[in-house]
Design brief:
Distance between the termini: 35 Å
Strand order of the largest sheet: 5-4-3-6-7
Radius of gyration: 18 Å
Shape: globular
Length: 235
């Protein structure tokens, strides 16, 4: 990215943060994504070549630390990067208050993927929980499986082969409202009581949910406070 040529803290920060896809990459790293493919999973539309470029740039600027173990490469935020992630949270609080997602931008897979990164091991009531979601206003493939375990969570576009603990039939708007902690999950819910209780709990995890006065719960949070940090993933 070409610099602004200004000795201004805002300009200097924007040279790092304001490139396309960079805030999304930082968000995904903050959510616990360490592998290249994990970061891609949470950024539909991000080309692999662009991700490679952005990660190299963020490493040069001290935002990201890269480690290699054998043939595996992992990426984590540095202290500098974790502080920059707070900028992402503040930006998200602003977006939750002043912006509305257009229907065409609502992605059921991404909503479930982000939610899966927020569900920590203590919120998984059994060693493995599998919930099938059918999205009624999307053409096939419109089935997704939320697979949660004490060692890691994932969202599958094909049956994972495990017994299903519950089935949800809803539309995209209903799913997104639930993920965004704006309303209870709507539609047809086939699930035992313990899973219904868990679905209610998971629907309250979004850090940008609005309070009764219309201000997102995360607004005004300070680093280190519960509202200031997106829940970290299992493992």
């Amino acid at each position: 990215m070409r610099g602004y040529g200004q000795y201004c803290p805002i300009a200097l920060a924007a040279e790092v943060f304001a490139e396309r896809w960079t805030p999304i990459i930082i968000r995904n790293l903050h959510l616990g994504c360490e592998r290249f493919t994990e970061i891609l999973d949470g950024a539909p539309g991000l080309p692999r070549s662009v991700l490679s470029q952005r990660l190299r740039s963020l490493e040069r600027t001290g935002v990201v630390h890269r480690t290699r173990t054998g043939r595996a490469t992992a990426y984590t935020l540095t202290a500098c990067g974790r502080e920059l992630a707070e900028v992402c949270l503040t930006l998200g609080a602003w977006g939750a208050r002043w912006r509305e997602a257009r229907p065409e931008d609502q992605d059921p897979y991404l909503a479930l993927w982000t939610l899966s990164r927020m569900i920590v091991p203590g919120l998984v009531p059994r060693p493995r929980v599998v919930v099938r979601f059918q999205i009624t206003d999307r053409p096939p493939p419109n089935l997704f499986w939320l697979v949660l375990s004490r060692t890691g969570n994932e969202v599958c576009a094909h049956s994972p082969g495990f017994p299903e603990d519950g089935q949800i039939t809803t539309d995209t708007a209903g799913l997104v409202r639930w993920y965004a902690s704006q309303s209870a999950l709507t539609g047809q819910i086939t699930a035992p009581r313990w899973l219904r209780d868990s679905l209610t709990l998971w629907g309250r995890l979004n850090p940008f949910s609005r309070t009764t006065d219309g201000v997102p719960a995360v607004a005004g949070a300070r680093p280190g406070s519960p509202a200031a940090d997106l829940p970290r993933p299992p493992g």
